[in-house]
Amino acid sequence: VAHCKRFFFCGQEPFVADEYIERLAWRTPGGGSRGGEAFDPKRLLEEFVNHIQELQVMDERIQRKVEKLEQQCQKEAKEFAKKVQELQKSNQVAFQHFQELDEHISYVATKVCHLGDQLEGVNTPRQRAVEAQKLMKYFNEFLDGELKSDVFTNSEKIKEAADIIQKLHLIAQELPFDSLMGFCCYPLSSPGKYHDLECQLIQEFTSAQRRGEISRMREVAAVLLHFKGYSHCVDVYIKQCQEGAFLRNDVFEDAAILCQRVNKQVGEIFSNPETVLAKLIQNIFEVKLQSYVKDQLEEHRKSDAEQYLKNLYDLYTRTTNLSSKLMEFNLGTDKQTFLSKLIKAIFISYLENYIEVEIGYLKSRSAMILQRYYDSKNHQKRSIGTGGIQDLKERLRQRTNLPLGPSIDTHGETFLSQEVVVNLLQETKQAFERCHRLSDPSDLPKNAFRIFSMLVEFLCTEHIDYALETGLAGIPSSDSKNANLYFLDVVHQANTIFHLFDKQFNDHLMPLISSSPKLSECLQKKKDIIEQMEVKLDMGIDTLNCMIGQMKHILAAEQKKTDFKPEDENNVLIQYTNACVKVCGYVRKQVEKIRNSMDGKNVDTVLMEFGVRFHRLIYEHLQQYSYSCMGGMLAICDVAEYRKCAKDFKIALVLQLFDTLHALCNLLVVAPDNLKQVCSGEQLANLDKNILHSFVQLRVDYRSARLARHFS
Fold this sequence. Notes:
74% of the residues lie in helices and 0% in strands. By secondary structure, the protein is mostly helical. It starts with a helix and ends with a helix. Helix 16 runs parallel beside helix 20 and helix 18 (444-473) packs antiparallel against helix 19. It is flat, with a radius of gyration of 56 Å. The longest helix is centred in the N-terminal third of the chain and has 104 residues, at 41-144. It has 28 helices and no strands. Among the domains are: 17-32 and 43-144, no CATH class; 562-710, Up-down Bundle (Methane Monooxygenase Hydroxylase, Chain G, domain 1), CATH 1.20.58. Keywords: Coiled coil, Exocytosis, Transport. Residues 52-90 form a coiled coil.
């Protein structure tokens, strides 16, 4: 089998011994694998032995072949290694020859360079001598007054003529006039011929520009580069570029398109394209834009402040946007400063007093918005107190509920308008945007603070604060019947408005002052406004007195003595009294109104105060009656309903007070033998004994000796 494996592994298919033996047995007669044929083990063994011998012979033959191939491989490897060594030696020799050749080439190159320098040293003076000879020839023609050379008579050779005249002009200027040579050369040093040729070149440049011949323009500009009139050539180019460029109403878009077109062309014509493009932009700003801006602004500067500010903001914005587009072009090293100076030159006279115009307009506009609103209400504004926070706190301490003098009837009007607020905030928003764009960076925080002060004055003081003062003055006295509590509506609207004010403070003012000392001033001013409004809201706590007064009227009108001491103890059909139903309904409405009118901690503060007063009212109200057994049960049902109502407050203290009151009412019905046990319960154990005694005294059976003995 091993011999078989060695043989068959040389093939492509894997060798499987079992299959090989099976096929061998199948081919052997008597192997037992053919059907109907008797099994002959001896014959099968003989076949196996013969086959093994054949395989051994084959293995030996293959082994000899392998050994022969290995010997041949070793021989060829030695020959290859020897050949590689010979090639390495040849390569080393070639490398040495290459180094020698390189050194020889370097030596020859040095000699050639030296020879070139010598030839150049001889040729340069020769060329100068030739040039000098030509100049002397042309110089003689100028002295004779007859220009015969083709270079002066052929108009197509104006470039060569310009170069000759430029050189002769420079030579003539260096000679003193009082010498004979200088006198003779005066015609060349005078501006006559020089100026004539310069004019011819500029005229040629102009004609080429009109024909659109860029290559000719480039040639003439290169010649004029050495003349004094080169700047005039640039001026002519700039002037002709603008012909027909400003035909639309949008001068800024026209300027951007013109600069973009010239930027592509100027590099093909002039050797200093950035200077030419910068001069074009300067000309556009100083002539076209400045004239356009002046026409737009001077028309409204004194007559219409609103339109003037809008135009100023729009023109400045469009100018800076144009400047941003021009920043893409190559204008030299400091193009940002260059463009900034151009913009400043146009707007400096308008930006110097911008903030004064802004504040003046904002003040008059805000006053007009407010006055128009009050006129629509047929309301004449009353003067309000100008006292500070301390004055307000003193008024709060004294609980003065008439801050404007006698109580006034507002007829349900809150004197707050979201339309007015939106208009004021919109005007201020636009002012902040203009301030951000038009103010110098060093003046930006200061100017933004002044605009914010205007907003505070007209929105917070003249509108919100005035409405709060008017609302406080309209709070009815606590003994008024059917009083309308409009102050909570004022609080609700003031709260909504202040949220809008706070949003504008964060969105539009904060980015302008966030990194300046004015930030602390603005935050302090905002804090003072909030504190002043909260103080006035606290003063409006007198509204709670009116609520309690209304509840007293309900209880006085609806509660009857027979409710808690019915004539027929066995015929009580109600679960709680009518007074309780009406009071709870009123309280729930007021709680909802308070929640809708305020937010944050103010809600909990006012509801806690209202809940404590509500509890005190019910406590004192229950003390006014005597209670039979059934009446006591009805009182407990009433207090249970009051307690449900107290849950709407969502104030732990208020709910605890009513839980205690409910426990006290149990003293009205508990059996005399259980009084001490009930009084020592969890809710009543910490109460003063006099309070417990006062409730027990309300029982109709208190005079009985048994009850008095148990409670003593």
